[in-house]
Design a protein that fits this description.
It is built from 15 helices and no strands. By secondary structure, it is mostly helical. The chain is globular, with a radius of gyration of 21 Å.
Length: 436
Amino acid sequence: MGARAGLSWLAIVRLGLVQTALGAIIIMTTSTLNRVMVVELALPATLPGLLVAIHHGVQMLRPRLGYGSDMGVRRTPWIVGGMAVLALGGVVAAAAVALMGAALVPGIALAALGFFLVGLGVGAAGTSLLALLASMVEPERRAPAATILWVMMIAGFAVTASIAGRLLDPFSPARLVEVTAGVSALAFLVAVLALRGVEGAPLAPPEGQGAKPPFRAVLREVWADATARRFTVFVFVSMLAYSAADLILEPFAGEVFGRSIGQSTALAGLQNAGTLGGMVVMAVFGSGVLGARAASLRLWMVAGCIASAAALGALAFAPRMEAAPLEALYVALGLANGAFAAAAIATMMQLAGRQRTGTRMGLWGAAQAIAFAIGGFSGTVFADLARAAFGAAAPAYGFVFLCEAALFLVSAVLAARLAGVRALELRLSRMKEAVS
């Protein structure tokens, strides 16, 4: 795509509202519906794990979707279309969960369709939105702009979880569908209004009169970049760690600590509020308005991963405490996750602000999606298997939390090595320029 004028801070915030809308629908499908299936419907945790795996597995199409927006003249239609599919998928998924109480098999079949649509919508809207931001924001603003987008998405998580938690009590299948439909419709409307006029008039594609390069050739070109390849591995492992407990945090609060659906949803809101706080702290002290340095980003990624491991270890042993500070532990986990995620996102924006922006974003988005699919599903399967082995819910959840903590420690090592690889490549590049 051709070049455009840099976005103002107001325009960046408007794009952040799209992320807020996207996050509002995601939290309803991947968190609240998961809790309903496991606790209210007493279904195995493997079922929502499999459904969310479908949602993430579909996002393996992200590189292809990003390539499509690269080859077009505007990214806005991809974002709006993706949000429409996402909103529809959220309503279908909620209706399917409500149906499961009366007809389990048809409900599961409908839920598979709903989560497929959710994954497709997130892939199309999310990839194109990030590519739009990376291609239109000036280099010195990319890191704080990326943080703004993710802070606003987490804000969507937190606000939606808190409000939906209140609206869902007392629970009923009809109320679940009504609340989800209302959230989805409002989110789509906010996204459309926020996008209006931001991108501007269509531009001629850079290929001019020539033929567009095939997708496989473009993907090979991106994969040949050693930094992009190594960053992809870090994204995969860290998101695997991030997602392994994602689907069991609400059921954990319900089964082990006896929290109601409204209370456990509110806990998810506290966790996401903590994530929001961690991102803000990283934005102020790590990137800020002056941009981000590689060493600073590496430090925040490493420290955030280690802190996440510590918080998960504390959650694993919380059932043994006489008065476990559950709310504080959820906030601490969110703070640690937010710090490492914001640093990783800032790094992503720095690396993606080159040629093939959409395809690069799609590659990293696909790595994240695959990790989420494997992590979310594995976490629920391991929880069910551990429950059978230990004969109780508390040690089963604790086992998954400790496995996730170990993965975060591996991610910290990968993050520490990533900056060294990047620095070496920069030195080699300068040497080549000096010779030439």
